């Protein structure tokens, strides 16, 4: 781990050049679902299927960011942010997942990047945040090998349009969710519940990262930095003295973390993962060079963190699951039917997720050691609360400020022991379509009245903006 970027713990300062940003995802904020040549993604199909999302909510309009782009960027600048992580809608750029790009789709992202640069905000592009073109899903989706090659072609199209203006690139966001929530538990699009398909999807997402990174490097200038955003799980045994509980944590660690970091960082799948899932597959869908192909040079690694996992051994799988990923009769953990999830003690967010910033510290230190020389970014961190406007129109969210302060203090602690952390992206800029939860959960630093689309920066947005301008961690609550 690097030691020359350590922060001054006594002053609460962060390194100069640290990126202070916010993050969004295309389907969650853009709206304009049928404009500009865009065709349905798996999330359009999923959200329009009765019973799939809370209140039947869809992303058809969302935050209308597609039409309010310029105002939203100006708002970011006013808040003092110096970076913005956004995703490109694959079906807006390449509607069928094949063939040439739709220039009207690319024009939106060209204009967005231009706006960001004019306001001194660093654009950070995520190529895939879960919105697979529905036509590719109809052909089999991520469980099919061909989808990885289609992703590489799409990556080349986007890189060709933005190559001279964007230096920070993400191939995939949280491939674990795409594979195991989309094809395992079915609580995310496309809503399939097939353990084998989930494992196949995980592999082809690894392959897509490798092929996509190659495509980006062949198109982008040398200064471009290419990485991936993972959502690694801090997995803790309920009883650390129980060998069975420790083994349960190992099983989940393999499925949550090492199924991706094995190929991405080490060029191979871990042996224990293969053994744990032998009753489901022999992994013959993995080509002899696939895992090595996934091990492309990483210019940085993104960490998305919200809450840890607490697990135990459950003989016969008879203990109810509460892993925080939504209600389903199907597990997102193939080969781990004997593992039960437990709610850790302490405060929780509106998602029911326990608040534990020590997990973020652990991840930053761990990956600083496991991937030496690879800078780290916190590409998502934040909390949902039941925010409501006050009588005077302001939105006071002291719980979110306390959450952010505690997690940023954990980042500062990691910096102090040598973790090479280069930036932090708050999730999320705006209250938005929160996937299967619809509009019932508010993660935004900016309150959105979805009936009028009026934006109101919450107290946390102003607090975070002060941090972005000064690089010094403010106190959690203003007197």
Automatic annotation (TrEMBL):
Question: Which residue positions are annotated as catalytic?
Answer: 380 (nucleophile)
Q: InterPro entries attached here?
A: GH, GH_1_N_CS, Glyco_hydro_1, Glyco_hydro_1_AS, Glyco_hydro_1_beta-glucosidase
What EC number(s) are associated with this protein in UniProt?
Answer: 3.2.1.21
| Region forming the signal peptide | none
What's the catalysed reaction?
Hydrolysis of terminal, non-reducing beta-D-glucosyl residues with release of beta-D-glucose
Which GO MF terms are attached to this record?
beta-glucosidase activity
- Pfam families the record matches: Glyco_hydro_1
PROSITE patterns for the chain: GLYCOSYL_HYDROL_F1_1, GLYCOSYL_HYDROL_F1_2
This protein's superkingdom? Bacteria
Tagged with keyword Hydrolase: yes
Q: Where are the stretches annotated Disordered? A: 38-57, 316-341
Q: Which UniProt keywords apply?
A: Carbohydrate metabolism, Cellulose degradation, Glycosidase, Hydrolase, Polysaccharide degradation
Among its keywords, does the record have GTP-binding? no
PANTHER family per the UniProt record, alphabetical: GLYCOSYL HYDROLASE, LP05116P
Describe the family membership recorded for this protein in Swiss-Prot or TrEMBL.
Belongs to the glycosyl hydrolase 1 family.
* Name of the protein in question: Beta-glucosidase
Q: Which organism is it from?
A: Streptomyces cremeus
Classification from the root reads:
Bacteria, Bacillati, Actinomycetota, Actinomycetes, Kitasatosporales
């Amino acid at each position: 781990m690097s030691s020359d970027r350590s922060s001054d713990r006594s002053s609460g300062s962060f390194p100069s050049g640290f990126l202070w940003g916010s993050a969004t995802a295309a389907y969650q904020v853009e709206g304009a679902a049928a404009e500009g040549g865009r065709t349905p993604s798996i999330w359009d199909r999923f959200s329009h299927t009765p019973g799939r999302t809370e209140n039947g909510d869809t992303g058809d309009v969302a935050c209308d960011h597609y039409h309010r782009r310029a105002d939203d960027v100006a708002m970011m600048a006013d808040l003092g942010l110096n970076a913005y992580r956004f995703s490109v809608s694959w079906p807006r750029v390449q509607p069928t997942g094949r063939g040439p790009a739709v220039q009207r789709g690319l024009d939106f992202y060209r204009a967005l990047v231009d706006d960001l640069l004019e306001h001194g905000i660093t654009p950070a592009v995520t190529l895939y945040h879960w919105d697979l073109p529905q036509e590719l899903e109809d052909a089999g989706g991520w469980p099919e090998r061909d989808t990885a090659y289609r992703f590489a072609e799409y990556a080349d199209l986007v890189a060709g349009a933005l190559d001279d203006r964007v230096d920070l690139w993400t191939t995939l966001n949280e491939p674990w969710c795409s594979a195991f929530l989309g094809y395992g538990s079915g609580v995310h699009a496309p809503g399939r519940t097939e353990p084998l398909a989930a494992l196949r999807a995980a592999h082809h997402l690894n392959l897509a990262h490798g092929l996509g990174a190659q495509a980006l490097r062949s198109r982008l200038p040398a200064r471009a930095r290419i990485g991936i955003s993972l959502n690694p799980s801090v997995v803790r045994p309920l009883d650390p003295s129980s060998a069975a509980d420790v083994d349960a944590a190992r099983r989940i660690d393999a499925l949550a973390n090492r199924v991706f970091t094995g190929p991405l960082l080490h060029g191979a799948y871990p042996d224990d993962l293969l053994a744990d899932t032998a009753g489901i597959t022999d992994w013959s869908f993995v080509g002899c060079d696939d895992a090595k192909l996934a091990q492309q040079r990483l210019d940085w690694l993104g960490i998305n963190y919200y809450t840890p996992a607490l697990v135990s051994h459950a003989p016969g799988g008879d203990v109810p699951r509460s892993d925080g990923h939504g209600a389903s009769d199907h597990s997102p953990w193939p080969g781990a039917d004997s593992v039960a999830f437990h709610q850790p003690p302490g405060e929780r967010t509106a998602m029911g997720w326990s608040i534990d910033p020590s997990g973020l510290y652990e991840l930053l230190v761990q990956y600083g050691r496991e991937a030496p020389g690879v800078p780290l970014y916190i590409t998502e961190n934040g909390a949902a609360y039941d925010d409501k406007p006050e009588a005077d129109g302001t939105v006071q969210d002291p719980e979110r400020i306390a959450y952010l302060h505690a997690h940023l203090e954990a980042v500062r602690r990691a910096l102090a022991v040598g973790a090479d952390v280069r930036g932090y992206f708050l999730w999320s800029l705006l209250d938005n379509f929160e996937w299967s939860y619809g509009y019932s959960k508010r993660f935004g630093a900016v309150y959105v009245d979805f009936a009028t689309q009026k934006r109101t920066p919450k107290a946390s947005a102003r607090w975070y903006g002060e941090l972005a301008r000064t690089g010094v961690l403010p106190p959690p609550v203003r007197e």
